Amino acid sequence: MNANPWLPRACCDEHCLAAGTDPIGHRLAVAWRQARRAAALAVLVPGLPMLALAGLLGPAGPALRRGYCRLVLAALGVRVRVTGGPVRNLSGVLIASNHVSWADVFVVGAVAPGTFVAKAEMVGWPALGRLARWLQVIPIERGNLRRLPAVVGVVAERLRAGKTVVAFPEGTTWCGLAHGRFAPALFQAAIDAGRPVQPLRVSYRQRDGRPSTAAAYIGEDTLGASLRRLLTARRTVVRVHVGPLQLPGGDRRALAARTQAQVLGAVSVRAHRPAARRQVRLAA
Predict the structure, then answer these.
(1) What's the DSSP call for residue 5?
(2) Which residues are the signal sequence here (predicted)?
């Protein structure tokens, strides 16, 4: 465990996963469901580079990215429902969302595709690292505060150029039953560029509407275990609530607080004493 006190942490663990697990039913039905979805996913995975190539297609690019992300989610057994306001077709918007899973990248991409701010280690991964570089992911070392201003500068530059940038200000993944506070640093980029922030709230549900942690990627969890839960769940519905645009007025802390209120709504942000904290994966 990294003892750096500045790293975002959450206390979510296997107990959170048990609390939001969908009873998956008959063993044969589960095996069939998993095999069918895994086969569909295997067909789609080789097309991941299309997400990068879509950026070369001009106005048609975002539509292609949205369509591909929805296909990947459908293969995983995830259905997307959008609520709230419309996603405005504006240039230079900072999208701020809560963070539950690696699947959030496809969920947000299915609604409002853009460039993601992701952990720096991801760029060095053998396969995903190449895709991250193609997609011009903005790497961030969350344990190195001295490099943070440079990241803010890159985000601001992208926003001024009319690009959509997606950030997860909680800084790490939470199970979806609890949430972290929004760190204000990246909101400075929106203020410096004079561009608005689009709040998105992502929540995973079972088919009967109860909260689901099938997609969660927390604590000692592995990507394989998270993927398996999605493939075997009866049906996962992810609701994406689009909040009102937040204009870049005031300082970054005020802008972060306003955006957090729009994303998390009446859901309380759980605070933990250091002794109760557990390090979680800094997913994309």
Answers:
(1) T
(2) none
> Packing angle between helix 27-44 and helix 60-75, nearest 10 degrees?
150
pLDDT value of residue 168: 92
The one-character DSSP state at 2 is -
As given in the structure block, the two tokens for residue 76 are 């995983």
Which is nearest to 38 in space by CA: 200, 248, 230?
Answer: 230
End-to-end CA distance of the chain: 19
Report the C-alpha gap between 52 and 56 in whole angstroms.
Answer: 8
DSSP string, 141-163: -TT-GGGHHHHHHHHHHHHHTT-
Q: What residue ranges do the domains of the chain occupy?
A: 14-276
Two tokens at 115?
A: 């460039």
Please report, rounded to a whole number, the percentage of residues in the chain having pLDDT higher than 70. 74
How buried is residue 250: exposed, middle or buried, by Cβ count under 10 Å (0-12/13-18/19+)? middle
pTM for the full predicted model? 0.82
Let me know: does 178 contact 276? Beta carbons within 8 Å: no
